[in-house]
Amino acid sequence: MIGTAVKELLLEKENTFLIPAENVANVMCLNPLSHALLVLSQVKYSKIPVLDKGDRFVGLISLSDVVDKMFDITSVDFDKLKDFTVADVMEVNVPIIGEEWELEDVLHLLVDAAFLPVVDDNQCFKGIITRKELLKAINHMAHELERKNIILPKSDDESIEMKVI
Amino acid sequence: MIGTAVKELLLEKENTFLIPAENVANVMCLNPLSHALLVLSQVKYSKIPVLDKGDRFVGLISLSDVVDKMFDITSVDFDKLKDFTVADVMEVNVPIIGEEWELEDVLHLLVDAAFLPVVDDNQCFKGIITRKELLKAINHMAHELERKNIILPKSDDESIEMKVI
């Protein structure tokens, strides 16, 4: 479990954790891959969320997923992208979190993901929590913890017992 | 400044921070972009290091940098990539760190970069430090700090003075 002092300092930056959905580029699962290529080549993220018609989160798509579909044996063919939709290549079973997320889960899941999609109870996409914003909070915590607190190493169990006796 | 207890716990994972150069895909600055496209479409990183003939680090290249050069007004043309080298599109003036890096700098620079190239005194590329490995160390620290230490909030200066008197 994450200790109280570390947790409280990390959560002082909590209101900056979520990048809201309206500021995150996305594509729809039935968009042709040629459209996804255009969007992905213009945004700074290497992966973006895929939504269905009801704005529900259904997966992620990367530039690499799209480019893969352009390759044939000898060359790269843009026209091939018109034959596929985003749903054909997107990554599914992606870790997501709810709006009432726990810091413990965010810290753990961001080891393996560059960002975490946040969804409401109906799976509607609400935004993302990124490693970048978490690392800002970690810098804050690492600098403030020992400025605001005194850290005393715990004695091991045996010595505590001896003192009690 | 990062406090001693936080720093020591983070550095317990120090030997896993560096992913050595031999395990990181790279391209040479004079490679044609068609080669870079092939390499970038096959690796898991969205950006990879660019080296010169002497294995010195000179920049980064992303799949997005390459795809941009394939676009013309109406379509995407793979053959255009043969007219350019990696050096024509790579990102330069990238933050790098030396082999004797400070944790403070790593924590600070990884807010804005997914990974940091590590170079020796001759600018030779030695590997990368990634957000992923740093976040593993942060998870370790966040869980261990209050298990191993007692955290006492510091009194403000006035009350300390009163106690001393």
- H/E element order of chain A: HEEHEEHHEHEEHEH
- Largest inter-chain contact set: A-B, 49 and 49 residues
Which structural class fits the helix and strand makeup of chain A? alpha/beta
What kind of assembly state do the chains in view correspond to?
homodimer
Radius of gyration of chain A, taken over Cα atoms and rounded to an integer in Å:
22 Å
Within CATH, the superfamily of chain A carries the name CBS-domain
Beta-strand residue fraction of chain A: 15-25%
CATH architecture of chain A: Roll
> What's the CATH class of chain A, please?
Alpha Beta
> How would a crystallographer describe the biggest sheet of chain A?
4 strands, mixed
CATH topology of chain A: CBS-domain
Task: Estimate nothing, just give the exact number of structural domains of chain A.
Answer: 1
How many beta-strand elements of chain A? Answer: 8
Protein name (chains A, B): CBS domain-containing protein
InterPro entries (chains A, B): CBS_CbpB, CBS_dom, CBS_dom_sf, CBS_domain-containing
Domain CBS (chains A, B): 18-76, 90-145
Pfam families (chains A, B): CBS (PF00571)
